[in-house]
Amino acid sequence: MSDTLLIREDADGICTLTLNRPDAYNSLSMELMQALIAAFDAIAEDIAVRVVILRGNGRGFCSGHDLKQMLGEGEESYYQCTFETCSTLMQRIVNLPVPVIAQVHGVATAAGCQLVASCDLAVASETARFATPGVNIGLFCSTPMVALSRAVSKKHAMEMLLLGDMISAEKAAEIGLLNWVVPESSVGQKAGEVATKIAASSRKAISIGKLAYARQIDKPLEQAYIECSRVMTENMLTHDAGEGIDAFIHKRKPEWQHR
């Protein structure tokens, strides 16, 4: 196992990012968050990448912030920098031009649960567990709340935030935090199948659609339709839209140029 905090592997348009702090349950140290931000910045400019899988080494996905590091620093300016860096990381995922799939096993708690909520799709093992348990240590999960409240309904979000209890993968799927729950032996396979299907599509079309979703979701209905009508017009003018429509009409496989 590499000593690198974050491992990147690329194959067939799929970029796999592996959190690699297994002895610390892949907790988000400042250095790991910075490595993730740098990786997402590079991926945004890499036309060869169509989709990202985010996973963790060791016994769990991610246990949240590295509290030992935070207490060791003990300065207000460091705490502010930590939470601002984390917020930047989550926004990088949301604004990335390609989808990010969370591949979850073990625990995903606090900022680790925030990571899952920030990703576009999520697959988890049947034994995975999720929580925003900050209330139990006197530190309400306010920044995880931002992502969680956009992924699940208000009452489910508040249940997790106020009680701080672990919930099962089945419950997480029921409330909308996960897309798929599979046996632990199949979680990597399922994430790969989903990623492969996405990677077969036009990167340009996926990028346009993902970013448009984020822009329209909080707009009033009329403004959302105005925005998305503009986006569809923009999409129609791309090379890949013309190629895809022609391929459909002539019953052939499209040849994407991702432009």
From TrEMBL:
InterPro entries given in the database record: ClpP/crotonase-like_dom_sf, Enoyl-CoA_hydra/iso, Enoyl-CoA_hydra_C, Mitochondrial_ECH-domain
Name listed for the protein in its UniProt record: Enoyl-CoA hydratase domain-containing protein 3, mitochondrial
One function term, GO molecular function aspect: hydro-lyase activity
Database matches in NCBIfam families: PRK08139.1
A single GO BP: fatty acid metabolic process
Database matches in Pfam families: ECH_1
Function per UniProt: May play a role in fatty acid biosynthesis and insulin sensitivity.
Protein family membership: Belongs to the enoyl-CoA hydratase/isomerase family.
This protein's UniProt keywords: Fatty acid metabolism, Lipid metabolism, Transit peptide
